[in-house]
Design a protein that fits this description.
- With 369 residues, this protein is α/β, with parallel strands linked by helices.
- It has two domains: 237 residues, no CATH class; 103 residues, abc type-2 transporter like domain (abc type-2 transporter like fold).
- Helices cover 65% and strands 7% of the residues.
- The protein contains 15 helices and four strands.
- Strands 2-1-3-4 form a four-stranded mixed β-sheet.
- Helix 3 links the parallel strand 1 and strand 2.
- Helix 8 packs antiparallel against helix 12, helix 11 packs across helix 12 and helix 11 packs antiparallel against helix 14.
- The protein is elongated, with a radius of gyration of 28 Å.
Length: 369
């Protein structure tokens, strides 16, 4: 049985590596997508255009404007001299935010009275608006603290000090890039396995495989192992890129991560083989793969928290192996979680994988007999 499986494994790998299109799918898109996602997919804001509407000629207003102009998150897009010009910056998206300082701002501060400023923000993209608003509030809070120290004013009775664990600089890349490991591994593995049987049907070699002495179990294992091996190579490459290129920390155990990778690959390969067994053409296999990949990514927590989804959708995510793998990869890399704390993520992927492989094997037996 071992030699038969090795022979079938060699045949599958040669069929993939000798085909130029298959080689490109395995090498080109993962590298391109890793670079695109790693650099383009970010929740951080840099050089957001803002407009300044300053009605005060005092020193305090100039200091506050200088703090906004010197912040990496903002860049000055223009100055406003009258109220009607605000719409000319916000409506055509020339500025995301308008900083409006009233005429009495510096005088109120000099007289130790509360001074107010107005932030007018474009709310069409609510997520971007909230992030920009948080940046602006941080700048204003720093300005208030600095003025209080200079004028020897009493500090508030309670002062909030924020300390971010696992990501001290709150860099969104540390959150996104580990998720890309699961996302790209899912895409490549699913495409390889979902097209394997369909490709042989189109080429006419599947009937030849059925008349060989292989048992359904041997065919299943021989079809599954190439996907798992390719997935291991792809995920290992992306992990190296994440650590050494994107400088994402890796503080956990390598064994805890690779156990999760193997279980995740087992689940995705099983689902891919189910799709491939049902498809009669490569086009159907490709369509079936994407019908699974897109919802899987959306329901995984890659971009939006699962806790924010409706309860019925949260229950549906329990069938998604990517959901569990993202917890493992982020937990191991950023938090250093050991295997003992990840058991609740391991066993659902194992159940999904064994169930999917069993169904794929049943479909193979239907084809054989």
């Amino acid at each position: 049985m071992g030699y038969a499986i090795l022979g079938l494994l060699k045949k599958e790998l040669l069929a993939l590596l000798k085909d130029k299109k298959s080689r490109f799918v395995l090498i080109g898109p993962p590298i391109i997508q890793l670079l695109v996602f790693g650099y383009a997919a970010t929740f951080d804001l840099n050089r957001v255009p803002i407009a300044i509407y300053n009605e005060d000629a005092g020193e305090a207003s100039r200091e506050l404007i200088a703090r906004f102009a010197g912040a990496r998150a903002f860049r000055e897009a223009g100055r406003i001299t009258r109220q009607a010009e605000i719409a000319q910056f916000i409506n055509p998206k020339k500025a995301l935010l308008v900083l409006h300082i009233g005429q009495e701002f510096s005088r109120d501060l000099s007289n130790h009275r509360p001074a107010s400023i107005q932030l007018i923000i474009d709310g069409r993209n609510s997520n971007t608006a909230l992030v920009a608003l948080n940046y602006a509030q941080t700048i204003v809070a720093d300005f208030n603290r600095s003025r209080a120290e200079e004028q020897r004013l009493p500090r508030p009775a309670a002062c909030l000090e924020i300390r971010a664990w696992f990501n001290p600089n709150l860099a969104s890349r540390w959150f996104i890039v580990p998720g890309i490991i699961g996302l790209l591994t899912l895409v490549v593995t699913m495409l390889v396995t979902a097209l394997s049987v369909a490709r042989e049907r189109e080429q006419g070699t599947f009937d030849q495989l059925l008349v060989t002495p292989f048992t359904p179990l041997e065919i299943l294992i021989g079809k599954a192992l190439p996907g798992i091996l390719i997935g291991l190579v792809e995920s290992s490459f992306i992990i190296l890129m994440a650590v050494y290129w994107f400088r994402v920390p890796f503080v956990g155990e390598i064994g805890a991560l690779y156990l999760g990778i193997v279980l995740f690959l087992t689940a995705t390969v099983g689902i891919g083989l189910m799709i491939s067994s049902l498809a009669t053409t490569q086009q159907q296999g490709l369509l079936g793969a994407f019908l699974f990949i897109v919802p899987s990514i959306i329901l995984s927590g890659f971009a939006t928290p699962i806790a924010n989804m409706p309860e019925a959708v949260q229950t549906l995510t329990l069938l998604n192996p990517l959901r569990y793998f993202l917890v493992i990869v982020r937990g191991v890399m950023l938090e250093g979680l050991p295997m003992s704390l990840l058991v609740d993520q391991y066993w659902p992927m194992a159940v999904i994988g064994l169930t999917a492989l069993a169904l794929a094997g049943w479909l193979f037996r239907r084809r054989l007999y």
